[in-house]
Design brief:
With 115 residues, this protein is mainly alpha-helical. It has five helices and no strands. It has one domain (2-109). Helix content is 82%, strand content 0%. Helix 3 (43-61) runs antiparallel to helix 4 (66-86).
């Protein structure tokens, strides 16, 4: 029971953060614009990244697409980590490591509504 509650809380957290960050990139918020400029990412790349982050957040919510959403989210975090290493921003890349591991923890815990 406790693992289901933990899994549900992680899904909710992932969904909220994905919507927040994805929408911020799509709407070109000042924070997202600053991150994109720092990573030398153009407006098109920012829109694609924002859209994919939104999609991964929505996919995580449903049991049938749970694993695909988590793998997409982990891939996107990995891409952001690579972009940070490309501009020699080691601290930012290290900060991403726990967020990279979180989708794999969620896959291990399974979706709380799975049968």
């Amino acid at each position: 029971m406790a693992l289901r509650v933990l899994s549900a809380a992680l899904i909710l957290l992932t969904f909220i953060l994905s919507v927040r960050h994805g929408w911020g990139m799509l709407s070109s918020s000042p924070q997202a614009r600053a991150m994109a400029e720092e990573l030398r990412l153009g407006r098109t790349g920012q829109i694609v990244l924002g859209f994919l982050v939104l999609v991964s957040g929505v996919l995580v919510v449903f049991p049938a697409t749970f694993v695909a959403g988590n793998l997409l989210g982990a891939s996107l975090i990995f891409i952001v980590t690579i972009l940070q290493l490309r501009v020699r921003h080691l601290k930012g890349a290290l900060i991403e490591i726990p967020f990279f591991l979180l989708p794999f923890l969620m896959i291990y815990l399974h979706h709380p509504l799975r049968r």
